[in-house]
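The following record pairs a protein chain with its ligand, flavin-adenine dinucleotide.
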Amino acid sequence: MNSTKAPSANPLTLKERMKVPRQPMLEQAPKLRVMNFTEVNLGYSQELAKQEALRCLECAKATCVENCPVGVKVKDFVKLIVEGKFLEAAAKIREDNVLPAITGRVCPQEDHCEGACLLHKKVEPLGVGYLERFVADYEQRAGAPIAPNAAATGKKVAIVGSGPAGLSAAGDLIQRGHRVRVFEALHEIGGVLVYGIPEFRLPKEVIRQQIDKMREMGVEFETNVVIGKTVSIDELFEEEGYHAVFIATGAGLPVFLSIPGEHLNGVYSANEFLTRINLMHAYEFPKYDEPIMELRGKHVAVIGGGNTALDAIRSARRLGAENAYLIYRRSEKEMPARAEEVKHAKQEGIEFRMLTNPVEFIDGGSGWLKGMRCVQMELGEPDASGRRRPIAIRGSEFEVPLEVAIIATGTSANPLIQSTTPGLKINKKGYIEANQDTQRTSREGVFAGGDIVTGGATVILAMGAGRRAAKSIHEYLTTGEW
Ligand code: FAD
């Protein structure tokens, strides 16, 4: 059979495409945005989106697609943007990604699609994230209808946890005709998307809209249900008649530094600090009574170098912190945070204190923090993470005066489900063991994925696990084979 390549609607030659500069995202000015919690990025206009889409080289071997954990057909959806077919572009993304308005905003594109973009060898990569966000927002405004699900199979699937892994699996399973119910321990749906990532990066309204779409598709949600306490996994099978369970409970347990003074007033975990801001509405001060320490005029430090650390320090800035420090024991090159967040944080006046490690929180009397003793670090040989290992420089200790310190150096697994589900294998670190391709666990009918399997990772990796789980749950439910 002859395979004919569809002609490109792009009028530019490859050389001309390389000369078009990457179209910048409109954004709130730094001076203004440090005084509010509204979104920093303002999105593309139709013209900017089309202009950016023209830069796509339409490579025969689409490395951007190969490097996307959920396999979004980047080349195809970008081509539809060039043709002005924005709703078709959105539908194309939805074939692989149920949360495009979210991934368009928070996915670390530089590690996936944009990192693999061939343009990047010579010039800036295609703005895939910006384009994904544009079509998702366009689709939302247009109120486009959702695609119908497959015929009902009569099978019931319980999903534990409503973060990106759970939502992604729920979207795929409902489309395959299964009945899907998502159980969430908190009173809001969305996992880290809603309790961790602040409004200025991912507006709550965007999450709500995506979840409403899933409700329209038929996904049922039940909040305030702690699986392992309210009801066990065994009871979901035996008493509630579920045929499969997907555990997507994330890794939300804060890890502390285990240094003196960690108990002092003024020392927070990033998890608590951000939950108070996001779920308890400190970001809407003064509409809500601020459920957080007064930060105006204070010296605040966040310890860590990931997205959580940046979200915490940028939030502190918006709540009035006069001096806002990011304390990280490696150098900026090793920081795992998204590149765009690093750029934005610097524009907002966050002071980066790299190669610095806290060794003690200092009591100012009556149990309140007054400062942090730190040590200067240097980088040695790469460690197990592949990044150069930080080593303390002897005799380099110094103090930083502070009223608030926020620890954002990582999280671990909440052990509740593991300890209440007999036969479920866990690894030494307390994460659930699951097959990397099928997400199957050691218990028949039980699947697991996202941060509860990998440890803290990213939204798109959690969504990828959700997709793989949905595929293999479908196989299990239709063949009965384990
Ligand atoms: P989660 O999102 O953690 O969701 C798990 C859900 O399960 C939670 O809602 C929890 O309440 C619920 N749950 C737990 N136990 C139970 C139980 N027993 N019963 C019922 N429900 C339960 N990644 C990016 O790609 N880009 C970013 O910009 C980014 N920024 C981040 C910022 C912050 C502040 C944080 C903390 C993380 C960030 N990440 C980012 C990482 C990303 O959010 C996570 O990797 C991702 O959310 C993991 O998804 P998940 O579905 O596995 O778990």
